[in-house]
Amino acid sequence: METSMAIDNRPPAKLEHYHPSRVLTLVYQPFALGTLEILAYIEAKINTRKQNLFGYTLFFIATLLVLIVSSLHS
């Protein structure tokens, strides 16, 4: 049985040179390792609530920076 719609797996022209998995890995890993080292070192001194807020804030900032850098380079 044939379908009338053709499946096109190509990305749009704007996204051809964008590799989100590479960019995310390069940006995320240093932050993740640094945060892990800092929080492991001072785990007993920091409140769990502060750890969560710090982690979510850092993740939000890193994600926002990925979007900004991506939009500047496109």
UniProtKB/TrEMBL annotation:
TM annotation in the entry: 53-72
Family annotation (InterPro entries): Eqnu_transpt
Compartments where found: Membrane
Keyword Transmembrane: yes
GO cellular component assignments: plasma membrane
Membrane topology: Multi-pass membrane protein
Keywords assigned: Membrane, Transmembrane, Transmembrane helix, Transport
Assigned protein family: Belongs to the SLC29A/ENT transporter (TC 2.A.57) family.
Protein name: Uncharacterized protein
